[in-house]
Amino acid sequence: MAVKVRVPATTANLGPGFDSLGMALQLYNEIELEIMDQGLQFEVTGAGADMIPATSENVIYKAVQYVFDQLGRRRPGLKLRAHNAVPVTRGLGSSATAIVGGLAAANELCGRPLSADDLLELAVAMEGHPDNVAAALFGGIVVSGKTGEKTRYVKLPVPQDLVCVVVVPEVPLATKDSRKVLPTSVPFSDAVHNVNRVGLLVGALATGDLETAGAAMDDVLHEPYRMSLIPGMDAAADAGRKAGALGVALSGSGPSLIAFCRAGDEEPVGPAMTQAWAGAGLAAHSMVLRPDLRGAQVIDIDASASLQPLTR
Ligand SMILES: Nc1ncnc2c1ncn2[C@@H]1O[C@H](COP(=O)(O)OP(=O)(O)OP(=O)(O)O)[C@@H](O)[C@H]1O
Ligand SMILES: N[C@@H](CCO)C(=O)O
């Protein structure tokens, strides 16, 4: 038996919503999983394939085993194929696609004993924070956080005229390194700033006020500290705003930037940002991406690759 799942890229934080806000994007990794009698066969192709171990150390494989362990089932032999379009260690949720994809594919192979909420809890346990994995699972814009033992999430409506420009520098930045530069405490006034911006941002997204959402994307909790790891980040963000973006933020832990644009205004934004980054000595490429509204999907291999939700 074989299953195939498709998982979207995600952009976390959206500026001020550190570890709390995430949005899925129309750029996808695909994972195919087949049970064998014994052993492990692995094939990784596409973006960043040379950076991803094709061994039992692979995050997809670990997620698959996690499901079998949680269900108390014997670990089977596996054939695993991953085809990636999401760049690795660029702040676009590549590791979240691996975690969510591995969990969802294993759950599918086992006959779907776990609900999407169960998968979220397992994904958060693996990733450590919920923003990317919640958006990858459910699609759209998701606010998420742990209250006690439970991970709660709220899906926000996605403004219809939102188009994103993602600008990806040609240098990796691992999340673990980008978290090391964060402070252990921040000034009260910075905390108040971000509380205000997250409130404005969530309210604006919920009511479709794109201009206010863009204006509320400025963050003082993590971006100022991470800037030291990403030369030219400020100049590239400024260039994006000048070229017509409503707001620009670091995507996840970086180094990519995400610009929120009103549909029709996006065209000059990517070139302006890549040019500004080139001026600071960093090569980058840009992509225009719409938000993904569906989240992780099972691809029915037998029915001309039609898409199905994870739970019935
Ligand atoms: N598509 C993938 N398949 C398997 N393993 C992956 C994949 N993407 C990332 N990983 C593993 O996860 C590790 C951590 O990735 P990391 O979280 O730094 O990058 P990211 O997910 O691209 O960034 P972010 O979480 O900021 O969006 C990588 O070093 C790699 O081992
Ligand atoms: N919220 C996370 C996203 C990256 O995984 C961070 O900014 O570190």
From TrEMBL:
The keyword Repeat does not apply. Keywords: Amino-acid biosynthesis, ATP-binding, Cytoplasm, Kinase, Nucleotide-binding, Threonine biosynthesis, Transferase. One of its GO terms (cellular component) is cytoplasm. Pathway: Amino-acid biosynthesis; L-threonine biosynthesis; L-threonine from L-aspartate: step 4/5. Residues 202-276 form the GHMP kinase C-terminal domain. Its main location: cytoplasm. ATP binds at residues 87-97. Pfam families: GHMP_kinases_C, GHMP_kinases_N. SUPFAM superfamilies: GHMP Kinase, C-terminal domain (SSF55060), Ribosomal protein S5 domain 2-like (SSF54211). InterPro entries: GHMP_kinase_C_dom, GHMP_kinase_C_sf, GHMP_kinase_N_dom, GHMP_knse_ATP-bd_CS, Homoserine_kinase, Ribosomal_Su5_D2-typ_SF, Ribsml_uS5_D2-typ_fold_subgr. Catalyzes the ATP-dependent phosphorylation of L-homoserine to L-homoserine phosphate. This is Homoserine kinase. It comes from Kyrpidia spormannii.
